[in-house]
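Lecture 7 notes: from sequence to structure.

We start with a single chain of 524 residues. Read the sequence below before looking at the structure.
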Amino acid sequence: MYYYKLQVLVLTADTALTDTVKKLEPLAGFEYEVLCRQNFDVAVKTADVVICDLLNAETLEALHRCKPGAAVVLSADAKFLEQLAPEDYNVLADIWVKPYLGTFIRFKLRRLFENIKNVRDCHLAENYLNTTINSIPSLIWFKDIRGAHLKVNDSFCRAVGKTKDDVEGRGHYYIWDMKKEEYEQGEYICLESEEIVLQEKKTCIFDEKVKTKHGMRQFKTYKSPIFDDNEQLIGTVGIAHDVTDLENMGAELEVILRNLPFAVLLTNEAGKIINANDICSQYFTEGKEAMIGQEYQQWKQQNLADMSEINAKGYADAKVLVGRREKNLEIYEKPIFDVFGTAVGMLCMCRDVTVERQLEKKIIYSANTDQLTDLYNRRYFYEYMTRNKIMSKHVNLFYIDLDNFKKINDEYGHQAGDTVLVMVAGLLKQTFGAEFIARVGGDEFLAVVLGSKTDAELAILAERFLSSLQQTIADNAKFSVLSASIGIAVSNALTDVDLLIRQSDSALYEAKRNGKKQYKIYHK
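Now the structure, written as tokens:
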């Protein structure tokens, strides 16, 4: 786990703003050093994050003196913002338009530090990739769908006698010093294998002859397709081992095992481990030497006790403790056959997918969550109800709609409206606790309360939310027109999700027709 110490400079005379920043819980891997100033001093040149609430003639000039790359936030009213020139906006990471609530500051700060963390994570991931591929003596390259080289490792550059700047963005014949005519004839240029990988859409292994300025070379190449988030092919990645001078296949196997960026072990036909690469020692405490000779199934039970079932593609997930850190491993098992089709052993590969699994969780969370309020969204509401077979249980559905919300947006702007939505989301969490809550429209929310409830119990929940909303906005004249209406529907054995929504919507309509600022329970 990496560690960063961020220096946060708060330029303000407002102690409430300072206290809010100091109370913010640091993200994982980060520590915040909060400096508070009521004037512009040398700290603006060293701080990683600058939050400026001091508005005077020196403000804009001082913000231009901030450290390059610093995240600069300006807290100001609309009148001051009218003074900003285009070049002033270029130094700002965010603008907080006054007036705002404390919840707004905490929300914006959290998002600001999350963005900083995402940038640091991406930079670290790129360093991991570059360090990994440049540590491998085999040739490694990434190509786009047109065959242009996007990234190569140091070994590739040494093999072709060119720098990365020369190679990246260029095609095969330029990189390998071939004449264009030779390239167009298609001999010794690996075009056929690239097409196979793109057609098969899976990792393929080839024995290829490549014409270089040093003569013909024999490569054992491993090529895999690369997909984008929509499962569309965007290119390939290749690993090439120069096996021209290897005397036998045994030596080639050792080279491959030693240089693969994941743990690999082999068994014989009796199920005993006969070979393993060095990375096995990184993942498993006993080390590769102790692994050799063990029964594979017994070793797997001891080291991969929580391994999931192997899926149809031959993959499974497992967790291992490496030092003090838990890692997610993707386990791949494949039987090895001889030339007669007889099983002679097993290949097991263990790949570290910890970062991938973490990113998958983030992607799933982003897909299921409303970005503004941090509540679930409409899409995930239906998935939640279906996947968990919620309608087979006793369900009470609260349909909440804000009254006069459009007036706030029209009079005070969408930023004020966003503040209201974030505030309402917080009140819903306080009212309904751990129950399922979703934002399903602009100012529409759903809360799913499970278990048999009387009308009186449902009324208590509805009144609690309506009361808390009125108390929250009581001291804010801007939001005085705001209220909420609630429609409540209760499922029975014959109710489906859409019918339950229609019933709650009908009760909501009745509440609005009767004067708003109230709840109604649907009764046939």
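The two ends are 58 Å apart (CA to CA). Keep this in mind for problem set 3.
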